[in-house]
From TrEMBL:
Keywords: Membrane, Transmembrane, Transmembrane helix
The species this protein was found in: Halorubrum lacusprofundi (strain ATCC 49239 / DSM 5036 / JCM 8891 / ACAM 34)
Protein name stated in the entry: Rhomboid family protein
Major localization class: membrane
Transmembrane segments: 33-50, 93-112, 119-140, 152-170, 190-209, 215-234, 250-270, 276-296
InterPro entries associated with the record: Rhomboid-like_sf (IPR035952)
Lineage: Archaea, Methanobacteriati, Methanobacteriota, Stenosarchaea group, Halobacteria
Compartments where found: Membrane
Membrane topology annotation: Multi-pass membrane protein
Source taxon at top rank: Archaea
Entry's Gene Ontology cellular component terms: membrane
């Protein structure tokens, strides 16, 4: 077969991609597929169908998360309540989209258990953190109600940024004896800082969240300093020579696309009425949790957990 024929045979086709998806599904333990796709959407739908759950929305007239037992309950439960069916469907679809790329990247990175542990932390912590951030920033401005799972979805978005680099680093580790390829997973912090800088510098669709150049500039400086420090310590990322298959390359392209679209859609071009502060809080927690694991891997020897 000619070289041209080799290139054509290695190019991704729709049939090849569908076959790859089917093979990935078959190779995934049924319990994993169930855990990542069914329980949370089922819970969200069940809560929406239960009578009286509209009262679980968080009122921004509340003075604090720990003001009363009811305030604490609504701070937590409001993340699982939705204002209408469209709101519910939007968050369920976004959840499925995020885990559809975060899960295979976690397998490549050796982060299967870390993904499950991170999700447990997000469910327990993100609703309270996002409620606190919302009350602090908007509590004196409005007494509106807020609800929705988008804060937890934003946490999964932060996780996706971290695991994308961890998976690529794992790919490089596997071929390091053959090529000079190398990616340190700590480079993910540069992307996290840069995305937060963009969120605070770019005009938002939410009128209550105008650009804040001072805050955005701090995150931009943080991104530059982190990049400079990593470049000095470990050098720039090098992926030449990985020789990934077309389907694996598509996984990284899809993961990066979902992450970029998620940042723009939840932190930058936010629809009017969306709680961007809850998104920001979820994103920060979502990135921080796995990144602490990355730092721990660096001191104890990098590896899956």
């Amino acid at each position: 077969m000619s070289a041209a024929g080799d290139r054509e045979g290695n190019s991704p086709t729709l049939r090849g991609l569908l076959a790859s998806v089917r093979a990935a599904v078959r190779s995934t333990p049924p319990r994993d597929l169930f855990l990542i796709t069914v329980p949370l959407p089922t819970l969200l739908v069940a809560v929406s169908l239960m009578p009286g759950t509209d009262a679980w929305q968080l009122s921004l007239a509340t003075e604090g998360v720990f003001e009363s037992r009811w305030a604490l309950w609504t701070a937590f439960a409001s993340s699982f309540v939705h204002t209408d069916p469209v709101h519910l469907v939007d968050n369920v679809v976004n959840y499925w989209l995020l885990v559809a790329v975060a899960y295979p990247l976690s397998i490549v990175a050796g982060w299967r258990r870390r993904l499950l542990r991170s999700v447990v932390v997000y469910l327990a912590v993100v609703p309270l953190v996002s409620a606190w951030a919302t009350i602090v920033t908007l509590g004196g401005v409005t007494d509106a109600l807020t609800a929705g799972f988008s804060d937890v979805n934003s946490a999964l978005l932060g996780y996706l940024v971290a695991v994308w680099f961890a998976a690529l680093a794992a790919e490089c580790d596997r071929v390091r004896s053959e090529t000079p390829a190398g990616v340190d997973p700590r480079w993910s912090v540069v992307v996290a800082f840069a995305s937060l800088a963009l969120a605070y510098l770019a005009p938002s669709g939410a009128g209550y969240f105008p650009p804040l150049p001072a805050v955005g500039s701090l995150f931009a400086v943080g991104a530059v300093l982190a990049a400079a420090g990593l470049y000095t310590a470990v050098g720039r990322p090098q992926v030449a020579g990985l020789d990934l298959g077309p389907e694996r390359e598509l996984l990284y392209v899809t993961g990066a696309s979902v992450a970029a679209a998620g940042v723009i859609g939840s932190l930058v071009l936010v629809p009017f009425g969306s709680n961007v502060f809850a998104h920001l809080a979820g994103y920060v927690v979502g990135f921080t949790v796995p990144f602490l694991g990355v730092l721990a891997d660096g001191t104890a020897g990098r590896g899956g957990s």
